[in-house]
Specification:
By secondary structure, the chain is α/β, with parallel strands linked by helices. About 55% of the residues lie in helices and about 10% in strands.
């Protein structure tokens, strides 16, 4: 029994909205796939098109359905599917467009040879692939099209097939050969996320980056159309306007974890502790203070190793961080040891006091006092820095082989 629809239901724009969103997300997916020299257009040469860098193009027709089968999946595309034949009819008219300069066979063939035609839909693959034999075998396609024309009672479908049959034999064969179906596109948003992931964006930043790009691109598209222009995005445009979004996503804050790591059996034998004891910064019986400083050193060591292991920092970035830290130390060391009127031990204590006030950074992220102190303890344990003037002579020989 057919349930009558209210006037509001008849005029509902739901289908149009979903269809537009399907087209938009496909457009965004293609934009995220752009390579150097390529351009993606929305409602320019077709629903969506990609202009390749070799003067070739791909035309995409987008068809979305809300109809589903019993199992909840979208309905199948059938051999007499109106979306299919309307699309083929539209493309045939594009090929034959005399206003575009394609009023002869040679020009039509030239256009077809430089163009791929793709029907994209969320509809399911047909159970019997043989229903599309005319797409698989371009050589006998005219006869198959004539059989399909005679086999339907729909005047609308007959009209669409007749449009395709207006193409001359060679042009028709080339056209069918360059035509393909891209079905079961049910999650274009996930495809966009995959493209973002493949651009080395951390997983935790993918969702937010997609939201930011979606918002900005929709706004830019609106302003473009409002300004009377076509929506067309080149690789250069995308790189210029949106690369900052990717930079921000990739530079997500480094997480400092206070992971527990067993302390060394002889805390007082660590080189950095010995350096601090030698300048009377730590007393030989203050095990509590030695433990606290060792924990700070371990937090810095372990997080730096984890960031490199998990790909959050490169080896080059870690080397740069060490060099910057050593430069902070060198500047403090030179300044504070310059005052020879002050006792040598006091000058060494001033050096460690100055270092403990410094907040180191990686990129634009401040690492805080605890981590920064731990980094200086780590460097003095290696030892790459010291506090008294003859620190190298005293401690370099104590590094384990």
């Amino acid at each position: 029994m057919v349930i009558p629809k209210t006037h509001a239901e008849k005029t509902s724009a739901d289908k149009k909205v979903v269809g537009f969103e399907f087209q938009y997300w496909f457009f965004l997916w293609r934009v995220l796939q752009l390579k150097t020299g390529q351009t993606v257009g929305l409602e320019v040469a077709d629903d969506v098109h990609t202009q390749l860098d070799d003067d070739c193009q791909i035309l995409f027709q987008l068809k979305h359905t809300l109809k589903v089968k019993k199992d909840g999946t979208p309905e199948n595309l059938t051999k007499y599917d109106e979306d299919l034949w309307k699309t083929l009819s539209n493309w045939s008219k594009v090929i034959l467009d005399a206003v575009a300069g394609r009023d002869c066979k040679e020009k039509q063939l030239e256009f077809v040879r430089k163009t791929d035609f793709v029907l994209v839909s969320n509809k399911s693959q047909p159970v019997d692939e043989a229903v599309f034999e005319f797409l698989a075998s371009a050589e006998d396609c005219r006869n198959q099209l004539l059989l399909l024309h005679d086999g339907t009672k729909s005047d609308v479908i007959k009209g669409y097939i007749s449009d395709v049959l207006l193409l001359q034999e060679t042009v028709l064969e080339q056209f069918i050969d360059k035509t393909s179906l891209q079905l079961e596109e049910v999650d274009l948003i996930e495809r966009c996320k995959t493209e973002i992931r493949e651009k080395f964006v951390p997983e935790e930043a993918v969702e937010q980056l997609l939201r930011d790009l979606d918002s900005q691109i929709r706004q830019d598209n609106f302003l473009t159309v409002k300004g009377g222009q076509k929506v067309s995005v080149s690789f250069a445009d995308f790189n210029r306007k949106y690369r900052r979004f990717f930079q921000l996503a990739r530079s997500a804050s480094l997480e400092i974890r206070p992971e527990y790591v067993p302390l060394p059996e002889s805390i007082e034998d660590q080189i950095f502790i010995r350096q601090l004891m030698d300048i009377n910064d730590v007393s030989s019986d203050d095990l509590e203070q030695m433990t606290a400083l060792t924990i700070q050193k371990r937090i810095a060591e372990n997080n730096l190793l984890r960031w490199q292991r998990e790909g959050e920092l490169t080896g080059i970035e870690l080397e740069t961080f060490d060099r910057e830290s050593i430069l902070w130390w060198r500047n403090a060391f030179r300044e504070l040891h310059r005052d020879t009127n002050k006792p040598h031990l006091a000058r060494a204590q001033d050096v460690i006091d100055a270092l403990r006030k410094i907040k180191l950074e990686i990129g634009e992220q401040s690492l805080g006092i605890q981590f920064s102190n731990g980094q200086f303890y780590k460097l003095s344990d290696e030892p790459k820095i010291g506090f008294i003037e003859d620190w190298q002579a005293r401690y370099s020989s104590q590094v384990p082989a």
